[in-house]
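fyi for ur records
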Amino acid sequence: MTDPLSFARLDISVDLPALKADLQRIRELPWLNHVNQRDYSGEWDVMPLRCPAHYREAHPILQGFAIECCDDWVDLPVLEQSPGLQRLLASLPCPLKSVRLMRLRPGAEIKPHRDHGVSLEHGEVRLHVPIESHELLEFWVNDHLVPMQEGELWYLNVDQTHTVINQGDCDRINLVIDCVADEWLREKIETSQLTCQGRYFNELCP
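which gave:
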């Protein structure tokens, strides 16, 4: 039996300048400190972009961190005013759930942990797009360093143990998208240019 895939880069175009343009406005808004304080050291905060429909008018903490199951998700005003982010999300024909920006400040660390049930095998997929990153940012999944670069779209199996370390002097800001693993998304992941077991084969890179 093949071990679950740890990560994969998807062959989907990302308009990085458009995302950075949206981010310049969004970074001036109030972000939310991540509520799971035992899972990190330093500063880690979140900007929710989509939330369960019944929380659209609720406190931002509920918009960003509600954990109950929900089938009805809606865009928040900050996303409705962000054309670059909207275009990227519209290019994904799979059902979207939670969408948020996640910022890890210089010197901060997200400690090793698992997000149980969030993987291809469980039918819910987490995608990451680094909008601001650098060479001193390390994202590890299942003891493998994920070679993510700005403007790339990645599947990460966060049901496996993962950790993030920002050893640089700049923020790391990722767009984080939770999706239903429908047939289209499964095929995209399974035919991606990164291979199984989280191992990176240079000869497969463009």
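The first helix runs from residue 16 to 26. thats all i got for now
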